[in-house]
Amino acid sequence: MSDNTAHGEPELVQLLTPDGELRDHPDYPLQISAEEIRGLYRDLVLVRRVDTEAVALQRQGELGLWASLLGQEAAQVGSARALRPQDMAFPSYREHGVAWVRGVAPKELLGLYRGVTNGGWVPGDYGLQLYTIVIGSQTLHATGYAMGVQRDGATGEDGSAVIVYFGDGATSQGDTSEAFNFAAVNNAPVVFFCQNNQWAISEPSERQTRVPLYRRAAGFGFPGVRIDGNDVLASLAVTRKAMQQAREGQGPMLIEAFTYRMGAHTTNDDPTRYRVAAELEEWKAKDPILRLRTHMASAGIADDEFFTGIEGEADRLGERLRGECRSLPDPDPLDIFHEVYAEPNTQLDLQRAEFADYLASFEDAGAEGGR
Amino acid sequence: MSVNLTIGKAINAGLRRAMEADPKVLVMGEDVGRLGGVFRVTDQLYKDFGADRVIDTPLAESGIVGTAIGLALRGYRPVCEIQFDGFFFPATNQTFTQLAKMRRRSAGALNVPVVLRIPYGGGIGAVEHHSESPEAYFAHTAGLRVVTVANAVDAYWMIQQAVSSPDPVVFFEPKRRYYDKADVDTGASVDSAAPMSSARVARQGGDLTLVAYGPMVKTALQAAEADTDHSIEVIDLRSLAPVDYSAVEESVRRTGRLVIAHEAPVTGGIGGEIAARITESCFYHLEAPVIRVGAFDTPYPQSRLEEHYLPDLDRILDGVDRAFAY
């Protein structure tokens, strides 16, 4: 494959190197306090712990499935910390870090993967829509939502904007291209945040694109930028600017967070069938948490006591989450019929009544010895 | 030469044989190459036939079906894997407005021998969009042949028949039965297999006809065994479009009772269509109304409830009891 692929491109916004060195970027200056940096570190560590626990819970049979975000914590936490409460985020199904930052309790995330719900939270309570499994669908929803924000006159310096999360694979879907175009022609206040984690299950990004993904935006008439997706500061700074531009009427922007899926696609997947270990090693050296810790230690932003404290908090979070997961109740069988329609539906009411009678017949039969 | 194969391995072996027999046969889809598909149905085909014949496509179902149509117009026989039932829908436009209509529109000048393989149905504890039974949409669309398999023998032969069919074929694979095994005589000729449009009597009986297809055939057979009071005949439909009505009619004329079971919701489903047809063609032979056993008119529920949503042995026997109540 020639070198006009997604790999090894030089145009990459990076504010924190893998070695933990700070860098300035002329377009994305970042004013950030030591307190905020400690907060980002805490987010990254706790989000990773939620993820690690969830993988373990799946292995123990407590979850049906889990889609790990390992390696993508910085892209998610940084961008989500750039949002304001009045902003709306549309996730894919791996955005556990975004959910964490938006205030969704980790146990609510587990519900979907445990199979007790297909949702998990009330989107309006958090400014975070529900996870979307069918790839790319949410890009159009976000664009439409942003068109609504526009029509409500809710933009402006202190107004709202929308962000949508999707992956490199999703950029191949027609829906995503249509979303880019709708957003562009409407100048909609939406930021397209693509986590290019290099792999769509077994297919490397070369199977999805011949140009760096951020360049797709130019063809639709809006700006695109590639950031170091393992750099939480770059993710924060660039998303903050993109969201503010969107709020202020400058239209959409595409952010390609160049990162890496350190784990399997989901717990059902076996990446050893299609990718080499050396690649994993290369990306381990770019770990998003390690580089922030290095920077914090060398800049005197945090001491050992702080880091130990966060570890302790992560341990307590993990323990609590294990208990919460195991105690998530199975829904009642008649829950199948709940909230299919807002208004009464005689056909469904009949089916529900028949099924309730059917279930009751087992209780009666049980008393008599059963079939 | 008899080989013990799972349904998944049988489809794999059938695809391999079709690819060996005809260099125009291609396999395409998401992750079908090096990974061998998420269910490993295309395992090793990439290694043995190469990237030109086993194509890892971009993640775009409309693109998969649309380009398969183009490849077919150029003389190829693409076998497309749609990764999961619930992921098919971006391809509805290409399938329903283009693939299904091309032959008729061209007055027979164009053939589009595309096969769409779709793992379908529930029972694997999956998240949303991974457990659906959308077959009725396809059966409702003129121009598509729709088939499904319930065992490894049919899987081996019918995938080859689907590939060699000049018509577009939607090939539904019962994902929770992928690992069910049977002995397959892989040395036999394709011509020796029954046509894929024919139904199969899976169990003989005289009191009631129980029609099922795909993943429900196994459940239907278990129900028939469990009912020691009646002699139940089980018909494995195999083809959903067209339906082999003669096989169903022959059975119903002997038994006088018909129950149809499928995982899909009953409303607008295959069962309702068969009920209407059989009521018309076998009216004077019926001792009871035709009974449908299927899912509710609700979205597929979260996996912890799927055992209640999916018709099981008890739900089928409840339907059987209702038929015998007349």
From TrEMBL, chain A:
Indicate whether Oxidoreductase appears among the record's keywords. Answer: yes
Ranges for domain Dehydrogenase E1 component: 44-313
Q: Which cofactors does this protein require?
A: thiamine diphosphate
Q: Does the keyword Oxidoreductase apply?
A: yes
Q: Name one Pfam family in it.
A: E1_dh
- Keywords attached to this entry: Oxidoreductase, Pyruvate, Thiamine pyrophosphate
User: What protein name is recorded for this chain?
Assistant: Pyruvate dehydrogenase (Acetyl-transferring) E1 component subunit alpha
Annotated organism of origin: Streptomonospora wellingtoniae
TrEMBL record, chain B:
Q: Name one GO molecular function term.
A: oxidoreductase activity
- What cofactor requirement does the entry state? thiamine diphosphate
- What does the record give as EC number? 1.2.4.4
| UniProt keyword list | Oxidoreductase
> Where does the record place the Transketolase-like pyrimidine-binding domain?
5-180
User: Record keywords: Transport included?
Assistant: no
Stored SUPFAM superfamilies: Thiamin diphosphate-binding fold (THDP-binding) (SSF52518), TK C-terminal domain-like (SSF52922)
Give the matching SMART domains. Transket_pyr
InterPro entries with a match to the protein in the record? THDP-binding, Transketo_C/PFOR_II, Transketolase-like_Pyr-bd, Transketolase_C
Name by which UniProt lists this protein = 3-methyl-2-oxobutanoate dehydrogenase (2-methylpropanoyl-transferring)
Q: What is the originating organism of this protein?
A: Streptomonospora wellingtoniae
